[in-house]
Amino acid sequence: MAVWIAVVATGIGCYALKLAGLVAPQRVLADERVRRFTALVPVALLTALVAVQTLAHGRVLELDAARLSGLAAAVVALLLRAPFLVVLVAAAAVTAGLRAFGV
């Protein structure tokens, strides 16, 4: 039951956030601090997601060499300005290759 309460509360929160964006006055949205905040929030959230998926296993911090190597391959591909699909394939291939070798 508690899970459904969390799901419903999250849904209501998301709806309220979307509604707040629609009804916010233009002068608030034009503020430089708001623009800077909205530009940086997706980067911070994506970074947190990558860190959790790479360094955690359940509730335990786990330094998995295969996942870290896949992340390193993705970083290298991004630095080489590869398309996003190539970045994903490179990371997955390196991780899968190392797992196949038992790393």
Question: What would the keywords be for this entry?
Answer:
single chain, 103 residues, mainly alpha, two-stranded antiparallel ribbon, 2 strands, 4% strand
Written account of the structure:
The structure is a single chain. This protein is mainly α and 103 residues long. It has a domain of 30 residues. 80% of the residues lie in helices and 4% in strands. α4 packs antiparallel against α5. The radius of gyration is 19 Å and the shape is flat.
Describe the structure concisely.
By secondary structure, this protein is mainly alpha-helical. It has helices at residues 2-23, 26-29, 32-55, 65-79, 84-100, and strands at residues 56-57, 60-61.
Query: What is the count of helical runs?
Result: 5
Number of strands: 2
Q: Shape, please?
A: flat
Briefly note the structural class of the backbone. mainly alpha
Residue-averaged pLDDT, rounded?
92
Approximate strand percentage: under 5%
Q: Work out the radius of gyration.
A: 19 Å
User: End-to-end span in angstroms?
Assistant: 40 Å
Helix content: over 70%
Which strand order spans the largest sheet, edge to edge or round the barrel? 1-2
Largest sheet: 2 strands, antiparallel
How would you spell out the order of helices and strands?
HHHEEHH
- Segments where pLDDT lies below 50 for 5+ residues? none
Topology:
Elements: H1 2-23, H2 26-29, H3 32-55, E1 56-57, E2 60-61, H4 65-79, H5 84-100
Antiparallel strand pairs: 1-2
Helix pairs in contact: 4-5
